[in-house]
Amino acid sequence: MLNYYYDLNQAGRFEELFGETWIGENPTGAQNAYMILYLNFSSVEVGSKVQELEQNFRLICNSRLSALVRQYAPCLAALPELERSAPVSNNMKQRSKFKAMPRGYARSFPAPISNVM
Question: Which whole number is the average pLDDT over 56-84?
């Protein structure tokens, strides 16, 4: 439910979802201000070798990053192309440097990410 509260793509549904709740009547000011990167690591196949785990992790995370770019296309259209086989940290670092966010959008990656496969 928190993803709906913070997701900027859900701003038009805030009243519908939260209007008659305590948080709807007492908003934090951060409602509908963020891009939500949804990660579900239960779908990462372990494999029989560490390299397989790393590759599967990369594919899952990089595919979720691609989905994020599609989901928030109006504000992320200028991002460089994602390298699906690259380490996730490379893709995250590349995106954390992006500062040309249109007015009204929060930055989705506030700090560089390191030590991620």
Answer: 83
Indicate the Cα dihedral angle 84, 116, 113, 7, nearest 10°: 60
Determine the pLDDT at residue 23. 93
- Sequence-ordered list of residues with C-beta below 8 angstroms from that of 109, at least 6 positions apart, any chain: 92, 95, 96, 98
Interval 48-64 mean pLDDT: 88
pLDDT at 78: 74
How far out from the chain centre does Cα 33 lie?
13
| DSSP H stretches of helix in 1-117 | 2-6, 14-18, 22-25, 50-71, 73-76, 88-96
Are the CB atoms for 108 and 34 separated by under 8 Å? yes
pTM over 0.85, yes/no: no
CA distance 35 to 96: 13
